[in-house]
Amino acid sequence: MTVHFPFQNSYSALPDSFFARVAPTPVAAPRLIKLNRPLAVQLGLDPDVLESPEGAAILAGKTVPDGADPIAMAYAGHQFGQFVPQLGDGRAILLGEVIDRDGVRRDIQLKGSGPTPFSRRGDGRAALGPVLREYIVSEAMFALGIPTTRSLAAVVTGEHVIRETALPGAVLTRIAASHIRVGTFQFFAVRRDTEAIRALADHVIARHYPELREAERPYHALLAAVVARQAELVARWLLVGFIHGVMNTDNSSISGETIDYGPCAFMDAYNPAQVFSSIDEMGRYAYANQPRIALWNLTRLAECLLPLFSDEQEKAVAEAQDILGAFSDQFSAAYQAGLRRKVGLFTERDGDEALIQDLLDAMAKNQADFTLTFRKLSDAAGDDGADVRAQFMEPAAFDEWAGRWRARIALEPQTAAERQSAMHAVNPMFIPRNHRVEAVIQAAVHDDDYAPFEELVQVLAKPFEDQPEFAAYADPPLPDQRVLRTFCGT
Ligand code: AMP
Ligand code: MG
């Protein structure tokens, strides 16, 4: 079978300083373990061909398809607040871009496909565990309706990667609106290459924000648009209990997608200070810190754009500050509107914010499961018998709040059934719980058993449906199943 990728590459046409041309390094014995068939179709690719040995060889980086122009992208970034002037794709290679069925340009990138000029001391490889984790969580985010990179395929390489122990190697095929990051701008800003910043900004506008081409001040409008998308994105994360874990500027996408799933996790019990990542000792990227960090990252982006704003530094800074100033209100508006939907409010009244905050406070105090509390509350909107109170250590804490909630929803004309279905559509039953993800990884890595992975992916594809046969996937971990730490796994 011949594999045809209808590549239409644009990034590799940018100046040479933007990337390094490099092909994937072939691997010993690639085996396709998962192809995302609906996504393949969406991308205009033939899933049957991708599943053939020739397709698997491409998804493993063993052969380069016709029309590909493989590159490793250059970028810099602040990692935990420390600036690193050169990072770049150290273990990822962009094969090229295709235009999907909706007319959207999408990157096809291999992650774990071998060393590049940006690898520094890394081996350019990925271990199977983190590849499965990224596959599961990114696809779960998509099903939850949250902007994200996608996973097209996972391949085991037949080689081992050496981490603390020898682990099976794997390659993930990642799909993104683009892989341009805040750190991509920083790469050129630190080199004072204003022409490159302009070329990058023009590329980004054409690709992600075409409506801004007509704007009076397109670069200002670009910053404002990225600010708005990040504010919306982080609000969405908080509303499902997602913790990215490594919100470095190199992991902050200009298109507004969630990118780079490392030690990310969904929290079980609601705790605003929750951190899972083993490398986040200071809690910089804790759940509730994420909006603040997003703004910090956007401020780094703004600094890069200053030379495009004005030759007068002071004027440029004032303009940037003005644009960044919109973040807090945009975030709060998206977050509060999302919370109102989560508790089933159709209208906005004085006191709503405090009412909802009181629920969150009671949840935090009572270690209530974030996902199940809202799901059971959705049930309770249509049925007095639904057991929300069992989520609370002291169930009376919920009873007191529930009385106020019932009085508040009684002020709205919607029926109980209308409210319940609206709430079910925003409060998922299923999230990728850490202990489930961990169990799937263990089965794959130690027993070469992918059945648990397949089943978890299937359940998470319909997070808002009850799926009674899979009810156990909604359960929080038992005390001995609790995952306390997650790892980058690089
Ligand atoms: P990450 O923590 O995955 O966002 O990666 C941060 C930086 O380290 C990026 O420049 C990556 O390309 C690079 N990197 C991570 N893992 C590896 C690896 N195994 N080999 C080479 N570079 C890597
Ligand atoms: Mg990264």
From TrEMBL:
Q: What cofactor is needed?
A: Mg(2+); Mn(2+)
Provide this UniProt record's keywords sorted from A to Z: ATP-binding, Magnesium, Manganese, Metal-binding, Nucleotide-binding, Nucleotidyltransferase, Transferase
Molecular function terms, GO-annotated = AMPylase activity; ATP binding; magnesium ion binding; manganese ion binding
**Catalysis: reaction(s):** L-seryl-[protein] + UTP = O-(5'-uridylyl)-L-seryl-[protein] + diphosphate; L-tyrosyl-[protein] + UTP = O-(5'-uridylyl)-L-tyrosyl-[protein] + diphosphate; L-threonyl-[protein] + ATP = 3-O-(5'-adenylyl)-L-threonyl-[protein] + diphosphate; L-histidyl-[protein] + UTP = N(tele)-(5'-uridylyl)-L-histidyl-[protein] + diphosphate
InterPro entries linked: SelO
Q: Is Secreted given among the entry's keywords?
A: no
Cite the binding residues for ATP: 88, 90-91, 111, 123-124, 174, 181, 260
- The catalytic site is made up of 250 (proton acceptor)
A Pfam family cross-referenced in the UniProt record is SelO
Give the binding site residues for Mg(2+): 251, 260
Classify the source by domain of life. Answer: Bacteria
- Enzyme Commission designation: 2.7.7.-, 2.7.7.108
The record's family statement is:
Belongs to the SELO family.
Name the NCBIfam families for this protein. PRK00029.1
Summary of the function given for this chain in its UniProt record: Nucleotidyltransferase involved in the post-translational modification of proteins. It can catalyze the addition of adenosine monophosphate (AMP) or uridine monophosphate (UMP) to a protein, resulting in modifications known as AMPylation and UMPylation.
* The protein's name: Protein nucleotidyltransferase YdiU
Species name: Bradyrhizobium nanningense
The beginning of the lineage is: Bacteria, Pseudomonadati, Pseudomonadota, Alphaproteobacteria, Hyphomicrobiales
Which gene is transcribed and translated to give this protein? ydiU
